[in-house]
Amino acid sequence: MKRIPLKVIPDPRFPIGSEGFEQNVIVYSEVVRQVIRRPLDQQKGADIEEMRKGIRILDQLDKSTTVLELEDADWEHLKTKTNAMPWAFVDKRIIEFVDLVNAATDTITLNDSLSVDIDRADGRLEEPVQTV
Q: 77: closest CA among 100, 106, 99, 55?
């Protein structure tokens, strides 16, 4: 079993409540969705085995709120797709996401167990909450 914290990370260039703040937040659960939905081979598309593996991960993601828990085989699939993903922009937060996926273990660190929760309605930054 591998555990990946589902962080929500604002862009430090956009202060809370500023124009562009909401559009520049990286939400790990959405990054996982994008990675899984993109076929490994863009020219051929996803075969049925890749679809089945991806659906297992998406189903688990739908059940998760703060930590994505994956069986080792599902984690290997996510890791493979994450490392093959062509990213649309250069950002330290993407590197952190890739590193978290690649280094996932059956526990999460204390630093990773604290997450930032953003109220999507008004862009307010809430207090960090413990996510175990």
A: 55
